[in-house]
Design brief:
- It is built from five helices and no strands.
- With about 190 residues, it is mostly helical.
- The chain is elongated.
């Protein structure tokens, strides 16, 4: 005689619980990418706004109040990376394996862009130091000539490098070494 149901030990046969890390990393990516867009937009707009404000008062503007073409290009590419990261985050939250590839593409784009942005910031600090020496009567130059201000610039540069490289390197390690693209998805019924 055939039994209508196989014998069980009393526990229901449920599908496996999908991993929670895709939602966590996806949400972090969406937030980090959104912050990158906002900061990039402010970074492009700030020299224009400050130049209009300070130039209208007849003051000599420091070199950091303008963006040269290479800085504009690096900032624009960084904003494209932020959009890519948001797309990667949305794909990962949706448990689509393409999220893994998008995170790797974001990381491969962001590491050199972060290094270039750091180089431009370091170069801008040197130009700013020379501007401070050349304009001793300018109130902004006087405020920027303190030893604390100079130390703060170096700490800011180091902090910028850390922030610019930490998440892209994490993404390279996590999605390139630790996890496989297929691990983003849950059970087959959840991937539809």
């Amino acid at each position: 005689m055939i039994e209508p149901f196989p014998p069980t030990d009393g526990t229901p046969d449920l599908p496996p619980v999908p991993p929670s890390w895709p939602k966590v990393i996806g949400i972090i990516s969406i937030i980090w990418g959104s912050l990158g867009l906002v900061c990039g937009g402010c970074g492009m707009a700030m020299p224009i706004m400050m130049g209009a404000f300070m130039g209208g008062q007849g003051q000599t503007l420091p070199p950091s109040m303008t963006l040269n073409p290479p800085q504009l290009i690096v900032t624009a590419i960084g904003m494209v990376g932020s959009i890519l990261l948001i797309a990667a985050g949305v794909s990962t939250v949706s448990r689509k394996p393409v999220g893994s590839m998008l995170h790797i593409a974001y990381a491969l784009l962001s590491v050199p862009i972060s290094l270039l942005a750091t180089y431009f910031a370091w170069k801008s600090q040197g130009q700013m130091a020379q501007w401070v020496l050349d304009n001793p009567s300018n109130p902004m130059a006087q405020a920027m000539s303190s030893p604390g201000q100079q130390a703060g610039q170096m700490i800011g540069l180091a902090f910028g490098v850390l922030l610019g490289l930490a998440y892209p390197i994490f993404c390279l390690v996590w999605f390139g070494i630790v996890k496989k693209p297929s691990e983003i998805g849950g059970p087959p019924s959840m991937q539809d």
